[in-house]
Amino acid sequence: MIYSWRGSPVSRRLLLWLLLAAWETGSGQLRYSVPEEAKHGTFVGRIAQDLGLELAQLVPRLFRVASKGRGDLLEVNLQNGILFVNSRIDREELCGRSLECGIHLEVLVERPLQVFHVEVEVRDINDNPPKFFRQEQRLFILELRMPDSRFPVEGASDLDIGANAELRYKLNPNEYFDLDVKTNEEEANFLELVLKKSLDREETQEHRLLLIATDGGQPELTGTAQVLITVLDANDNAPKFDKSIYNVRLLENTRNGTLVIKLNASDADEGVNKEIAYFFSNIVADDVKSKFTINSNSGEINVKGELDYEDCNLYEINIDAVDRSTFPLTGHCKVIVKLLDVNDNAPEMAITSLFLPVKEDAPVSTVIALISVSDRDSGANAQVTCSLTPHVPFKLASTFKNYYSLVLDGALDRESVSAYQLVVTARDGGSPSRWATASVAVEVADVNDNAPAFAQPEYTVFVKENNPPGCHVFTVSARDADARENARVSYALVERRVGARALSSYVSVRAESGEVFALQPLDHEELQLLRFQVSARDAGSLVDGGQAPQAASRALAGSAGPGSALVDVNVYLIVAICAVSSLLVLTLLLYTALRCSAPPPEGACGPGKPPLVCSSAAGSWSSSRPRRQRVCSGEGPPKTDLMAFSPSLPQGPTSTENVSLKNLNYISISSVLYNIKYVSPIY
């Protein structure tokens, strides 16, 4: 649709107003106004409604208002969303003589984070009367001065602005003086008393006038000053300057002693009445005198103190040229010094809101912090740009003028990098440019994204049978790369059936340490191998479970007594023990074979039935002769019995009942023997 600007002025004005309102809404800014000195609770605006926020959302979304200056001037009622005056607002204290005065607010709401800028204009009221710098002004006027001679007097000042500061002057009725008010290029009032008729010192030596200043406010406020005029005799020509106003431009930070201007005044008189001395006028403020000095003889004005554009960029200096007569006359001029800005201020940064720590699973574009920048300089010297430490998963996004958001630009992994030390650099547009840095420490908060992992996928443990109940078998260990509760691992036994019984009746696992315990004695003849699984689980809110593929405990057969402890046997130790045991058995067999192969002594074998050899249930050998030998372990009860028989046999008839000597040397060992030793025969 195309809109035409043809039509009545009213319709064009209405369309322009609508376009302006739409632009302000799109920019995320609101504007209100409030008069200064408004009472506590004065209504300013329905800020929640104007921002499109529901009243019920203000508290859950952490609605809050922040101000760059005093934050207690305005407040928001979270019940009705109304912005109201909270404390006394003095426009003159807040903004001085500036024509524009406003309170800049930042409205922050979260979930999601939104930032709104609100500007509240403070309207001036006529609460300050005009004031004169001096309540009594003294003038010395020679009686010879001609009518229409002019004599400057000091005007009043009003802290208000606009019409409230537009002053009108009047003088109390008298027969000698009128008041003339002029406005210069700087729109400043110059007051002059105009002599209506000649003075006669012999008739009246002193005149008292009342000067009244009235502002343009409603209601009007007034201020007064006394003008005391002393009539002088003789010297009738006052010094005169080339100009009434001198304009000077000067760079700030100019060194002390630098010449500002050289003034020149002349006097038409002769002799001493023509000699001129230069002084600061009595109305010059002390802060101006602290910045400049004047040479009374030459009229040179030089820099005396530090000139800072940001503190004050304009100085008005009233100069008096006084002749050296007995009754001196004075000439007046004004020097206006305007300072030019140089880039002498580095940018300033303020981090107004931090949302830390940042979870490692935070999505890209998550706002981490809000950064505002400013520069006290002006022009290009105050144009600030910001940059961030390179090669980090963050970036700066410009939101409004001089406002930036620190946002997440990539994925985070706490296990790789747990914290970032970011450096934000603000650089102005001056030449050479100045910069400032601010550090932002971003801590990455852990989320439960790692499952526990065991040190090894399978554990093999050898256990002696007949272990005592509750004996510690071994310990499993799992680690979690997360932190705190997410890394606290607990262990549990994966239940299953072992034959007709539950696995938990055999072993148990301590949840805190992963220690595995045998709950009952294990019997090698009943159970040679026990396989079971242990699971590890972290304590995170979103629990990740990790499970060892298989953990096995194996019981070896043997007649271990009830006091024997369960042991973990290294594979190499098992091989060594088996080798030594085998060597010991072979030695014993070889020894027996040699004994049996030796020639028997005569009469060793007599007639009769050969000895009977049989095996007992315990694995021992016995014969008809009551002689036997026992081989046992050096530790505890014997592991097995070994019966060794004499190779000599009684002689008797040899038939199928005869038994070969090598069969008498057979040894049966039911388990591995440690420290085997020979025990004397038992008869």
Q: Sketch the major β-sheet.
A: 5 strands, mixed
Ends: how far apart?
Answer: 128 Å
Number of helices in the DSSP assignment: 5
Number of domains: 5
CATH C-level class of the largest domain: Mainly Beta
- CATH superfamily assignment of the largest domain? Cadherins
Integer-rounded radius of gyration:
55 Å
Instruction: Work out the helicity level.
Output: under 10%
Content of β-strand? 35-45%
Q: Which regions have little confidence, pLDDT < 50, spanning 5+ residues?
A: 1-7, 18-27, 543-569, 602-683
Task: Using the coordinates shown, work out and report the CATH topology of the largest domain.
Answer: Immunoglobulin-like
Structural class call reads: mainly beta
Number of strands: 49
Note down, in words, how this protein is organized.
The protein folds into five domains: 23-123, Sandwich (Immunoglobulin-like), CATH 2.60.40; 131-340, Immunoglobulin-like; 355-373 and 383-445, Immunoglobulin-like (Sandwich), CATH 2.60.40.60; 453-556, Immunoglobulin-like; 580-682, no CATH class. 8% of the residues lie in helices and 39% in strands. Strands 35, 38, 43, 44 and 45 form a five-stranded mixed beta sheet that branches. A four-stranded mixed beta sheet has the order 1-7-6-3. The chain has a four-stranded mixed beta sheet with strand order 9-16-15-12, with no helix packed on it. Strand 46 and strand 47 (621-622) form a beta hairpin. The longest helix is centred in the last third of the chain and has 27 residues, at 571-597. The model is unreliable at 1-7, 18-27, 543-569 and 602-683 (pLDDT under 50).
